Amino acid sequence: MIKSFGKAPEKEVINRSDQYQKGRFQNPVSTTAASLKDMPHVMGRYMRRKTEKAPTSAYKFEEANRDIINVLDKTGIYLNWLGHAAVLIHAGGKYFLLDPMLGERASPFQWMGPKRYAPSPIDPGKLPAIEAVVLSHDHYDHLDYPTILALKGKVKKFIVPVGVSSHLEHWGVPKENIIEKDWWESFEGDGYTFTAAPARHFSGRLFTRDNTLWCSWVLKFGESNIYFAGDSGYFDGYSEIGEKYGPFDMSLMPIGAYDPAWHDIHLNPEEAVEAFLQLQGGQFYPTHWGTFDLALHSWYEPIKWLNELADTHKIKTVTPAPGEWVHLFDNPTDKNWWRKYSSELSLK
Questions:
Q1: Does the residue 348 lie in any domain?
Q2: Where would one find the signal peptide in this protein (predicted)?
Q3: What's the chain look like in SS3?
């Protein structure tokens, strides 16, 4: 078996979760992803689409290794979007890394599959010691085998949903370095508390489906409160999360890779804004866009749509380019930086 596929969890591990029913993990509401019968229609649309599939100008971001080695203000909280759903957080003098997909392809293979538009702004081998890596689920665009291999020797704890530890152990991460959590369970570390919360998605790596849990995360650093949605479709659970753990200072919300064929499992920007409002989300920090070609919309459509919605709803957005550090509360960024990479938008 190819190592990057991972390894299925033991039954006694996943049976402890209330979300594991009838031989698979379940969403809180009825959910379907694209089925095989949808594929001919989807492929037809894919072949006919006229939108920009990738940036048309030189797509290079400020290389972040210079800043990452410097000691940031230990009294503040800083975030750095590394592309897709990967976000590096500096808090209390420690580094935390969310969904570290820093590899070239969102695939089990290095020679095929969706390829990054540009290299990761941070080489995982140059990262400093990581207090904790937090995973939302085991899909290739969130849990990347080459990245884990590069990181595993410098990570103190991996904090993951139920069942995901089986992949990490298979790749050589010591069992004692892994913390598994079910929905509504928390892990308290030195200066932080992370709580797993529901999401509407699915899991699987090539030959498996729904045998590990998916989740979102509530990330508390002292009095500061951040929500990390991971990967999810819209459901009424956002209100419950907001009631239990909100209001938030900032919410990291996925806005890309949506399509009617798999509407239940990915938020589009309008749904993400609605979820954000229910969360009492604070500042809107968009993720899960602009890194891979995973849907039929243009590469820039999610952020363009979000900016329009933010103006309408008077929402404060934090839209850094990958590799750019922003402070949790003081983050002036150019929300239209992405326009210069598009031939369709650069002159408009």
A1: no
A2: none
A3: CCHHHCCCCCHHHHCCCCCEECCEECCCCCCCCCCHHHHHHHHHHHHHCCCCCCCCCCCCCCCCHHHHHCCCCCCCEEEEECCCCCEEEEECCEEEEECCCCCCECCCCCCCCCECCCCCCCCHHHCCCEEEEECCCCCCCCCCHHHHHHHHHHEEEEEEECCCHHHHHHCCCCHHHEEEECCCCEEECCCEEEEEECCCCCCCCCCCCCCCCCCEEEEEECCEEEEECCCCCCCCHHHHHHHHHCCCCEEEEECCCCCHHHHHHCCCHHHHHHHHHHHCCCEEEEECCCCCCCCCCCCCHHHHHHHHHHHHHCCCECCCCCCCEEECCCCCCCCCHHHHHCCCCCCC
Question: What local confidence, expressed as pLDDT, does residue 347 receive?
Answer: 47
Q: Is residue 346 part of a domain?
A: no
Residues 143-171: tens digit of each pLDDT: 999 999 999 999 999 999 999 999 999 99
Domain count within the chain: 1
pLDDT in tens, 31-89: 987 655 566 666 677 777 888 988 887 666 555 555 665 656 777 899 999 999 999 99
What tens digit of pLDDT does each residue of 327-346 get?
A: 998 877 778 888 888 888 76
